[in-house]
User: Fold these one by one.
Assistant:
Number 1:
Amino acid sequence: MRFHYLSLIALLASSSIAFAQGTAPGKARFDTAQTAFEEGDFESALSELRAAASLAKDDALLTEIHLLRGRCYAAFGDTNRANEAFTSALEFDPEARLDPARVRPSVVELLDGLRERLQAELSIRSSHSGALVFFDGKAIGVAPLRTSVPIGKHEVEVRTPDGALWKKQPVTIRARQAHELYVPLQEQAPEPVPGPVAETPKVFGLDEQKPRVDPASMKAAAEQDDAVRRVRFFADLRAAVEPMVDPVGVGGAFGVGVGGRDLLASVHGSYDGEDFGASLRVTARLSKLLWIVGLHAALEAPAVFLDSGFGLGAGIAGGLDFAATRWLELFLEGSYRRYFLLPAPEPGAPGFPEEHVVTSAGLRVWVP
């Protein structure tokens, strides 16, 4: 019997030790990484942080791990990976911040700009269809609705047009997640007004309720405001390579356009060392691979001006775009163009090829 008791005690002790070892290393590895970072050994810090992230289970600790990862990559000058690490931190805590007294201002701005730029999908339903929806005090439409909103802590208010039923509800929006919110409406006591309020003359019939609002006009105004907010002008500059010709063709292009979150229209001028060209493009953003890296596709109508005439064509393109900041995007693209030359060249005669496969990369600058 005594042997069984001793065995049980040993088993419990070993389980406790194993449990402690399973939870403590995440914090221990993070502390080691922090020491390495402060000593300027960023490679060792990143190695320890990868180990810590694989062990940690607590959202607060994972947030700190990814924030320090971002600072390491920023110290290397790798903005892309710094953005990816900061996005992971904001996924665990959308209110995560860096101390400006301890962190370089450029790195603090990188995280703050990312927080302002990141959005997530929010679906709002209510017990009363047609109720007005406000997000942080701003009208965004009529329930039910689905929209994109900034990450972070916010307040949603839903109320009937006559103001008789209403409710305010806090919501935390996290990156890379879809959120659903159901708001049941009920009569609420008037919100307390702080401090003394000067008396105003009462108008019979209007003191007992909030002003009536037309849901249709509010929804239209909210959609119009959202559309205007998203549409901006931009300019882009690209370098292009045509690898399937001999010798390999190299050129560049400059374009200006207007666009929003999902659709862009632009006009471009190009030069490849021999011929000038122009094109009209319509580009659609298709989906996100990561939160700040997306796919796009484009249709274009190119023209080329030759010594012997000119050519008109049609083309398709597709590629990746990366939002480096709120006003700067980088992109990588492949395209195919088919030209119809005027006058038509003689069969087999050397000259400008009718088919072109082009790889290009560049940057797009948005006007604030």
Number 2:
Amino acid sequence: MKSKTLTIKERVEDEFQRDPNLGKIVEAMQPFGIGTVSTVMVSTNFTQATARFGLAKLANLGVVTRLTDVGKIDYAREGRPEKPYIFTVYAPDLLSDLGYKDAQALELDGPLDVAHRLCMALVGIHAFTTPEVEKVIHYGNGAYMRFDLVAPQEGNPRGRIVEIEQALESKHKSRALAKLRGIGDAVAARPNELDEEALIVFNLTDEKLPRTLKTWRKAMREAGNLTCVIRYCTLRTFMQTPYIDAIAELPILTPLEGKSKEAESREDDEPLPALVEFTPNDVSDLVAETRDIARSIPGRIVYPEQEEQRLADFFAILREIYAGSFGQDGATSRFGLFPATSLERLTAFLRLRRNRALLARMRRGFKEVRKRQSGVTLYQDAISKFVWGTFLRQFGLGRGGPLTIYILVPEVGGKNTEIRFDIQ
């Protein structure tokens, strides 16, 4: 019996039926038209080996092609750069009968264009659900603008505008100005559709960001009062805490102050006002005014049962994490093993969607702690601020109450050789 010779299209359909992972990889690449092993892993939860094997098989079938001849592709993230894959011009026809209508070949013009599109994918895959890519938004009088991403948010019906930006010289400031005004006008025209906070992700290293950021801040000064807040970060910073719907800790793009050097010099030389002590009558007036303030700002209403339950639940969370390794049956408390279970529980807890903002704050706070490791006093102060101002503040707890935390540092010649916490 003679074997049937399959056409290329039939071979593709046959392979997709044999290997369902191929279809999932195509689905992951469709919104952006580009992908790498890493983006496929995030979108599909595949292992690195599965993602790499699937992309190689799709390339062998002629569905995708690896970009190897476009020159150096710069995208400022941590780790080894990856060569991206894009759909071939044959992909629409090869996949037409399989239901993948959005698998289109991109027309990319050189390394910068490739890098821009790849950054859109690296950011967009972390949206709550699939974002709208290159979304065109009209905002009256025939005006419109195309935005890189409009990303859905969890628990918020409004999408967030996300723009990917490269280096920008001062002479091209008008481009930044047009973009800022476009974002502001779009948000103002569609307040029920677009979130009032937009995000710009700069594909630049921390060292190269200041020059471009200065250009954008100059443009911000010319843009005037916008009807939105624009936050920003580098691609590397975003990838450390890749949450599009939790950006409250990122810096706000503010206008560059336009003071002259002469004005700044005059402010520096201005003497302090002479000290004039308060008279008894001044103090009496201040007491009366302070009491007026107190009446206008009454004490916070507290429901004891709810607050007691809050504390109980908070410590229950800590106990569940701690007991993994240090409980009665814990491997660490019994045999001195590495506390892997508690650390795994803590990692899973911090990566809960509800804790995205907390994790972002903790990562930033820990950077400040590491900067102050040179002196014991500074280090104690930094640790204290990290514990109270970052972690406990998220749970509504503050200093001055029954909860006290002592940070104990090693003493010369003492038994303790590591930093400890005494919680009372």
Number 3:
Amino acid sequence: MKNKRILIIGIVINIVLLLAFLIGTSFITKEKLKEKVNSLDVEVDITNDGTILVTEDWDIEFLEETNEYYRNIYYHKLEATNPFIEADEVNNNIATFSTIPSTYEQKLFKDGKEINIEKGYSFNHDLDRDGNIIGGIDRVNLEVFYFKSEEVLLGNYQIKYKYKLEQFVTHYLDCNELSLLLIQEPIKIEKLNFSVNFPNPISKPFAYSNQELSSTFSENSLNASVTSFYSLDNDYFRLRVLFDKDSLAISNPNHMMSFNAFNELESYEARQQEINKTKDLLSVDQAKTKTAVYIINIVLVVLVILIMIITYLYFENIIFRPKVISKATSINESLLDSSLILDSFLKKRHFLGLIKKMELNGNIVRENNVLIYKNKDGLSVEETKILLGIFQKQKTVTLDKIDYLALKKKVIDKAEYEDKPQLILLNFLFIFIFYYIIIYRMKEKLALDLIWTKALIVVLFVTSLVFFILLRFKKRKKYKEVKAFKNYLEEAKLKDDVYLPYYISYGIIDFK
């Protein structure tokens, strides 16, 4: 019965671990979205001096209740990997965010109706709801728009932003460059539409992005779109447009570079596209790897449960039932040793069986529930110690005053087979604890060095399994003998008093 409980507990533990792993890794590998953008329309008007006027229309859905929102606006021109970032003359090629009130704006709408909001801006050193300076004090080439609403924001809204970036276009000897970092934090955007309006006639511009881009050009306007481009594995979106060098009248020398850039930038964008394709492939491989890890995990859990069930059926003689021996005298172990092999956690009945043996031997006399000490003749050393432990230097003792816990300790400390061949529950439990730790530690790099992880798990699994099976192998024979002996007693129903202590100790009959 005890083994059946251990089996059920072991199966439940493994299933719980499996569910915890599958559910836990889902939360680990996927950041919960607070909002998603159904569509984002961005219009950029380039003026003759290279300044740009940006208008953004956000169709946004708040997935959690809030009453505030931030919009980070980046206006640094060159990313860290840009081929010209180390050129001396680009150090002063810096745009300026216009803080003239008429050049910036933010509005919130619900179903076409404007909602009253309290607005804040980082360049005005405004404070947010918690009393912190919006955007912080260490920001570089960054301004933050902030608003809070009296009503709770949940569901679909429309946000309109307007801002001006002065001297944002860079002039090279062979082209002009518009490089706009639109987003640099994770957010889900379903569709993005981008339009760039040029002040003067130009030939067809060249548009690039770190996402797959489709674009058209007509009447001095470039229209680009990206559909379902953004995922939580990416962290920015930049648009670069190269167009005719003489189409603008840029006069600021800090924004006029004295070298050709078109070929370098085109090559740079081509390399970026290859990198993005590689990332996409890695993302696909990572998804496949995660699936493989899940499958491996499920298979291992199922395998453990099957092994536990087979082990239980085997040691309980439900399958491979040992042949019932015809002679009870083939059991060589003492009464307590044999009962200990049969049941690793000693119970009171084991000692009651031994007391019955002592009574039959004449070592003690029992009057109702009182034991009277007589002698220790014919007892083994172990049984003598138990006898002395029962009486504690007294001549009499009642059954309910016997310290069975102390007696159990005496037996367990000296017993060779105190651990019955069990279901190896703890062994597999430790294996899977290590397994979950490994996967958890690899949550961000699940596709890297996975072969070594697989090898480690397999080695750990097989080594532990073989080790503990071998450790218990020598106990199996004795356990099977004792189990067969118990089966024999149950079937033979022997009347001889010599077997009565075994009947009591094995729990076949009650102590009387």
Number 4:
Amino acid sequence: MNKLGRPTDIAPKMATSIPTIKPSQKIPSQSESINNIGQYIPQPRIPSPKITATPRARIAFMVFLSWFMIRVNKLILPLLVSILLSTVGTLKIGRDVNALFGVVFSPITTPTAMARSTLTGSLEFLEDLPRMSLENQELKKEYSALLSENQNLKDAITDQETLKNSSKIFTSTIPIRVISIGKTVTATTSFSTESIKRGQPVVSGTILLGFVDRVSDPIIHIIPLDSESLSRFPVKTGMGQSGIYLFESRTPQIADLPSENPVNLNDSILTLPTELIPANLVLGRTTKIISAPQSPLQKAEIKLDSKLTSKTPDPVIVTQP
């Protein structure tokens, strides 16, 4: 009994307070916990899988929903815009609206249309490239054929004009064109080579240039007057002195001239007629006496009037003097 006459509890009430761990207090290990049986030790709380699964599923659902809405908007929005434009176009104000849309969207659509047109043209060009390459090859062949035919016609016309001019001087000639210059000069002609023989003279006008060496149809080989392999042939001076022409020591010469009539410098040298060589074809002029004064036969150097080159005008072969 207390002072107020109320009975007191026989058993004292037990405290239910939970001990706390101070910051400076050490957390006992497992062995210490076993020794201290009955003492409360707080343990860390691990979240339940059920608790964490709900927020993850919610986030995944929201991401999927956002992606789905974006895809739906991309599909439906153009459809709605096209329906709206077609609907407005049927109204009275459709023209004004179309004009407004043209003004607004023209800066956007024009570059896009140009880029698309350029891209389409490039793709078509790439697709047609193999066919164009084949056509180009065919055109090259046609051009080459036309070029050759045109050159042949030009050569034939030139040869006809040369033949017409030379026919006033000689009985029969064949025009030629020089191809290359070497020890022998090679030439060709648009005429038949059947009548061409070795030893026939090659002239330009009345100037002697060389002689035919051989024919390998359609190539004609010619020995020019300034060749060591040229055979000697009869010539005369303008004063009527007879001698022979030869090319010796890299110098054209007239030799075997009788000493009774001295050779004059700057005298013309002309051909004497033979079976193949016409008379009075011009070779050149004397420039220097190279024989001794007491020699019974005189010899003189000659300067040729012309040489056979690719630039020689109207060269022909005299087939009949």
